Hints:
Blueprint: H1 2-6, E1 12-13, E2 18-19, H2 28-33, H3 35-47, H4 51-64, E3 69-70, E4 73-75, E5 81-83, H5 90-106, E6 115-116, H6 122-125, H7 139-151, E7 156-157, H8 161-166, H9 183-197, E8 213-216, H10 221-224, E9 231-233
Parallel strand pairs: 6-7
Antiparallel strand pairs: 1-2, 3-4, 4-5, 8-9
Amino acid sequence: DAGMILMPDHTSSDMENxxxxxxxxxxxSTLVSGKFESEFETYIxxxxxxxxxxxxxxxxxxxxxxxxxxxxxxxxxxxxxxQNFHTPSDEQYASLLEGYKGIAKLTEGTDITLNAMxxxxxxxxxxxxxxxxxxxxxxxxxxxxLQSDLAASGxxxxxxxxxxxACDKAxxxxxxxxxxxxxxxxxxxxxxLAESLGFEPLTEDEIVRTTLSDEFYGTIxxxxxxxxxxxxxx
Length: 234
């Protein structure tokens, strides 16, 4: 492609928040091992001329045609891009529990209390924002099972599902274009932690809120190619 020859390579992508593949080093070793071929394929995909614009165009057209999901991301109400949840396999879940049990074993015979605060994601809390007919994983059932299994190991569960679900619907707990919670979501978790551990949290009036940017867009946007949604980052 003439564009790839004439245009300089980009080393990083702000939209995807990652390093892009530049032209791979060609040696006898990388050629024989297949590393060169693999990296070259990635290079073509990463350095394709006007790549971000093509991705955005494809996503925009798909949305206009009524598509409500892209790359396991739901195109939800209010401009939200909500990542789906998939229940871990039995092997993955067993490995997860073994990790917790290992920590619990280290504290046996001590006065240390272990607490687990597993954060529900937007697909759970913002389920009403999902498009009609969206098929999502059952995170509620997963968290209920995990809570029960952790309790069997003496680990206290700090619940966030209830306070998050009961929060004022006008309050934004997750970013529209990122899987992370907002700073306010983190504050709400902090107050739940304080209640469980028995200390007095700072009130909202005691915290200084500063807007860092009103042009923030997160990592999910890279998966669907939509760049017209922005968030406020405090």
